Amino acid sequence: MTNSVTSSGAATPLISPPSSSLHPSQTVSNIQNLIPLTLDPQQVQYHSWAELFQVAARTHCVMDHIDDTTPDLMLSKAKWDQIDVVVLSWIYGIITHDLLLTILKPGSTAREAWLRLKNLLHDNKSARAADLENQFNHDQLENFSSVASYYQHLKMLSDQLSDVDQSVSEQRLVIQLINVLSRDYDTVGIIISYTSPLPSFDIARSMLLREETRRGQHFDNQPLVTQLALVTPITPHVPNPPIISSNNRRGVN
């Protein structure tokens, strides 16, 4: 508060306008800084994305905009509606373009968009589960650049199967990992399969990565001619057998 002086010399107080208090949600300039995953059903598990979103919602006091909890009674309806638009923009901002066009509706609240998205990704669970199972069982290691990339692919499929109520056990993950190994990994594959109990998925991956690294180093240390022989099978040259006439079989006098 400051004072001003009138022409008569009397001081009159000047009241500063109250500073507008921002709701925690209105301090977020970019939701992707809080939720680094863009929801893509082909790559990101819905359950993981939703968990990250709800963490951000709880942190910024907006859970009542996506679930059925009682709205904040300290807020006016106009303020609550304003914050709801903020939350709605969060949802729209971290999903794929195709998902956005699917759930976008004029005048939607954040909760309505949240429920449409949830219902969409939980529809046709049986069909999605069948497709994911087919990928899980038939994708081969040879189609991936490394053991690490194949491991990540299996883990992603496992998460997506869990999202459609088809959880994959740790043991099944390990078995699938060693079932697709090429003959180059026979030794380490046998070690893993005969370990009782089976090692965890992460430990099996580490064992295979060490073998992959060892094989790469062994290959790099070979002379160029040897490297070519390792990647290009050489068919030995077998000379044509001599032609023996019928007269020479027993000898001719």
How would you describe this protein?
- With 253 residues, this protein is mainly alpha-helical.
- The protein has 2 domains: 99 residues, no CATH class; 106 residues.
- The chain contains 10 helices and 2 strands.
- A two-stranded antiparallel sheet has the order 1-2.
- A hairpin with a 5-residue loop joins strand 1 and strand 2.
- The radius of gyration is 33 Å and the shape is elongated.
- The relative contact order is 0.07.
- The C terminus is likely disordered.
Q: In percent, how helical is the residue content? A: 40-55%
Number of strands: 2
Widest β-sheet, arrangement of strands:
1-2
Order of helices and strands: EEHHHHHHHHHH
Number of helices: 10
Question: Strand pairing plus helix content: what structural class?
Answer: mainly alpha
Q: How many angstroms does the end-to-end distance come to?
A: 137 Å
Mean pLDDT: 78
Unreliable residue stretches: 4-8, 11-19, 218-238, 249-253
Number of domains: 2
Strand content: under 5%
Broad shape: elongated
Radius of gyration based on Cα positions: 33 Å
The description of the largest β-sheet is:
2 strands, antiparallel
Summarize the structure.
By secondary structure, this protein is mainly alpha-helical.
Features:
disordered C terminus; 3% strand; single chain; 2 domains; mainly alpha; 253 residues; two-stranded antiparallel ribbon
Topology:
Layout: E1 2-5, E2 11-14, H1 46-59, H2 77-93, H3 97-103, H4 110-122, H5 125-138, H6 147-163, H7 170-179, H8 186-193, H9 201-220, H10 224-231
Antiparallel strand pairs: 1-2
Helix pairs in contact: 2-4, 5-6
